[in-house]
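As a representative case, we now present a protein record of this kind.
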Amino acid sequence: MKENPVKRTRKLKTPDDRDVLAWSDVQARLIYDNLRPFYQPYFKFMLLSALRSAEFRGLTWDCIDLMNAEIRIRGDEGKTVKGQEARTVSIPEEAVDILRAQEFKRRHAEDMVFKGIRAQIVDMDEFWRHLKKAIKLANAARSNDVPEIQGSIHTLRHTSITLMLKSGTDIHTVSKLAGHKKITQTMRYLTTQPEHFHTASKRLGDALKWD
């Protein structure tokens, strides 16, 4: 045989195996409780929406639909991240309440939704400084059964996506809401636990109850 036939075979692409750092709901609550009150609604909104930090920072009122509880994320032609595909994100009622509380700051449709302490746009570096301080305080306050808390502003998005998947939301829906271009990006957030197998088998049994 002159040439190995496998040589020209394309390697199967697999999900990135790097661990995705995400907080548990208990860890997230500890951070929230120790965060400066000005940034608490910002922290919670990022958890509830799964927005990227640049999307959150660049969010304007003309992208908000409070009536239908939706946010429109612009694509390349807009003001968000380069290479980002346009999408519509549904948000829960708790996130709508946060937006309504910010409405008093609104003057024009093009105004930023989330403003900084001393500026018309939130300073993510300053937000991170306060978040880092809150994480330190949360670690000091946590009980022994709560793992040490680490992370960054990006961990908010990772936590949101992870909690959606753990709560049973199907991966295709989560992928669309997160703005992932490929399903393999979302697969990085999947963690298989023993209880997941029991839940899956129970759902299958429920679906096939013919009596």
In short: The beta strands are 64-65, 70-73, 87-90.
